[in-house]
Amino acid sequence: MFEDKNYEQMHLEKKIDELTKKLDEVTSKLDHLERRTYQNRGSIGNSIWVLVPVTAIIMWGLREIFAR
Questions:
Q1: Which conformational region is residue 45 in: left (phi greater than 0), alpha (psi within -120 to 50 degrees), or beta?
Q2: How many domains are there within the chain?
Q3: In the prediction, which pLDDT does 5 show?
Q4: At residue 49, what are phi and psi to the nearest 5 degrees?
Q5: Helices (H), the chain
Q6: Computed from CA positions of residues 37, 39, 43, 46, in that sequence, does the dihedral angle turn out positive or negative?
Q7: How far is 60 from 42, CA to CA, in rounded Å?
Q8: What is the pLDDT along the chain (68 residues), one digit of tens a residue?
Q9: Which pLDDT score, from 0 to 100, does residue 17 have?
Q10: Rounded Cα distance, 22 and 26, in Å
Q11: What is the rounded distance in angstroms from the CA atom of residue 49 to the CA atom of residue 28?
């Protein structure tokens, strides 16, 4: 009977260790995804600053073409 409880406790500890490892892996993957998300946000902001003047120049050119 004592051995059964000891075995159960060892089995539970093993399962807890496995779950802890899995949780660490998931946390690591989540951190990686969050870092990638924050890195990509900066590049989108830079693209906007390029697209706004280009769009304005195109609109100005089209207005000049169709005004005639």
A1: alpha
A2: 1
A3: 80
A4: -65, -20
A5: 2-67
A6: positive
A7: 28
A8: 667 788 889 999 999 999 999 999 999 999 999 988 877 666 666 677 888 889 999 999 999 888 87
A9: 94
A10: 6
A11: 33
Amino acid of residue 5: K
Q: Which two tokens stand for residue 9?
A: 């406790």
In one letter, which amino acid is 62?
Answer: L
Structure token pair of residue 48:
């906007």
**Full residue range of the structural domain in which residue 30 is found:** 1-68
Joined tokens for residue 4? 């059964």
Place of tokens 């093993």: 14
Residue 33 burial by Cβ neighbours in a 10 Å radius (0-12, 13-18, 19+) = exposed
